[in-house]
Amino acid sequence: MNNTAAQFIESNKATLQSLEGISTQAFAGVEKLVELNMAASKAVLGETFSHVQAILGAKDAQQVMALQSGLMKPLADKSAAYAQHVQTIVTGSGAEFTKAVEAKTAEAQKAFAGAVENMTKNAPAGSESAVAAFKSTLTAGQNAMESAQSQAKKAAETVQTNFTAAATQAADAVKKATKTA
């Protein structure tokens, strides 16, 4: 019985370490997004001041209109590039996160199954039906968890596909609008 308790303690320690690693990965993705947003904000601020100075230096309304229309094309390209960077960060972080969670979940299930197997080996005589029911319940729970993970993965893939399509449509719409302007 002492061995089973030690197995559960080790399993919990491993799970805690896994959670720490997964949390670190999640924060790394957030840090990348923050860095991207800070760089984009800094660039937009600098470009805005430069553009305002150029407009203030314009000689006539025609030059102002030319400066304004000249601003739209680079803005569309930069917006599309920004969306692509965000998508790359989110996709990369999500893939790493999912991979780590799946690996750690498999490890935890294996450790837990080993502890349960050890515990059932040491079960008192006459408890075979209770042990079989416990194992059956455990198997059903694991199957339900695997099914939920599969559905969550499909949902994440659908969201990613929709995000990619929306980003592409937005970039195309901006490009079409700047061509007609």
Short précis:
The protein has 181 residues and is mainly α. The protein has helices at residues 2-56, 61-121, 128-180.
Number of domains: 1
- Provide the gyration radius in Å: 28 Å
The main pleated sheet reads as:
none
Coarse structural class = mainly alpha
How far apart are the termini? 77 Å
Order of secondary-structure elements? HHH
Mean pLDDT: 79
Helix proportion range? over 70%
The shape, in one word, is elongated
Strands, total number:
0
* Unreliable residue runs: none
| Helix count from the secondary structure assignment | 3
Bin the strand percentage. Answer: under 5%
Q: Can you offer a commentary on this structure?
A:
There is one protein chain. This protein has helices at 2-56, 61-121, 128-180. The protein has 181 residues and is mostly helical. It has one domain (2-180). Helix 2 runs antiparallel to helix 3 (128-180). The N and C termini lie far apart (77 Å). The model has no long low-confidence stretch (mean pLDDT 79).
Keywords:
3 helices; 0% strand; 181 residues; single chain; 93% helix; elongated; mainly alpha
Reconstruct the topology from this structure.
Blueprint: H1 2-56, H2 61-121, H3 128-180
